[in-house]
Amino acid sequence: MSVFNKAWMPLFMAGLTCLSSAVQAQQAPKAAITGANPVLSLNPDTAVTSYHDVTVKGQKIPYKAIAGTQPVWDQDGKPVAGIFYTYYERTDVKDRASRPLVISFNGGPGTPSVWMQIAYTGPRLLNIDDEGYPIQPYGIRENPQSILDIADIVYIDPANTGYSRINKDAPREKFFGTNADIKYLAEWINTFVTRHNRWASPKYLIGESYGTTRASGLALELQNAQWMYLNGVILVSPTDLGIARSGPVDQALSLPYFAATAWFHKALAADLQQKDLTAMLPEVENFTIQELIPAISQGGFLDDQKRKDIAARMARYSGLSEKVIMQHNLNIPVDFFWKELLRDRGYTVGRLDSRYLGQDREDAGGSPDYNAELTSWLHAFTPAMHIYLHDELKFSTDLKYMMFGPVHPWDRSNDRTGENLRQAMAANPYLHVMIQSGYYDGACDYFNAKYSMWQLDPGGRLKSRLSWKGYRSGHMMYLRKDDLATGNEDIREFIRKSLPKAGQPAKY
Questions:
Q1: Is 507 among the domain residues?
Q2: Which tens digits make up the pLDDT trace of 326-372?
Q3: Which candidate, 161, 183, 171, 196, places its Cα nearest to that of 82?
Q4: For 29, which DSSP code?
Q5: How far are the Cα atoms of 156, 193, 217, 271 from residue 41, in angstroms, in the given order?
Q6: 504 in a domain, yes or no?
Q7: Domain housing 403
């Protein structure tokens, strides 16, 4: 299978001064954490409310922020977990019924919603440079691209991520698996929507990385088990969504990502290098579909001259040598590509964002020593989130904020989330889907995302409600300043287009 299903995939995964702060409910108590499987020691049902504003596109937006926990209950009504969330609600809105609500997740599985909260759609932005690299002093600032102008947002940290915790005696199988995760979160969302009186609001899910698996499954679970119907699902750097790909298809689909990365690092032939990225990639995509997949399908019976011709084209598009490609029988492992592309320059390239460079102990070897991009991101995000929660949102606790929480083993069996999303769209004519991908993402690469979109709707009946957007960065494409602006504007436009006109029925 592709890199999507590797167990070590970790992802995928700000500030005007507070105008005033008021505690709406009991503030989180001091707590402690011990061991690899933390026990719940934070009040599972608490909230702290504060009031702020942010200027988006020149408009001052007042809002309240609620940072708190909401329980997960067992069949007897006993709290078995406290799920941490941050909810942003614009306060100068008179008609809340027509105001969209965006429900946001990140991925891993095992990471909180910190990534999109303080780097993409939320009202605060962590301190990074224009390309996403950490800078000091750590902290947060205003996010002038936030979608809070057009929608309210709740960021949810699933069990054992961020400040969310399960009880020490809670059954792990209730939380830590593809379908278990979807089931308990659908119940949680129902409670949240009821508590905050948002049943009338148009609703959207946005998930990043494994969060796209979660969001795709939730689209159907919310309809079937909670009778909650969505207007849209946004998939940021999507996984394979349980859509089968193996053999020649799996082996070939990474080539366009290789070409994008090689283009960025100026490792292609001059005639390709002088083209713009988006002018060059269609040629590679067409070769992948029309020639590479059929060639790999013939295996050892592929004509020798044809094999050499295919290897030469792959070398031209990937920046690797024909010799290396022939040695791998036309099947280049992605982790080998990260090591090989710039081996002669003494660098590796990042997995989640191949613009980032790493330095290994030795130039020899078949894969990088570490993920250069993830190390950089943790450098910036971890202190910024602690500063933000404590200083601005006034949520005080000694509980450890889990950037990567103890959620494994994770039960990945019976992943039908892509098909679930298709069923949800078929049953709900209001439901639209947008995919956002970074060209330099090597974990959930952009061409695999396109493939998933194509296979999501094999009959072609839903394609008018499916769209794909590409960005010149990686897995968290919004870390690049230009893509932060473009990505959020694409979300705004998606929301506007997916809102039905007054009186428009949901029917075919």
A1: no
A2: 999 999 999 999 999 999 999 999 999 999 999 999 999 999 999 98
A3: 161
A4: P
A5: 19, 25, 30, 61
A6: no
A7: 3-243+378-498
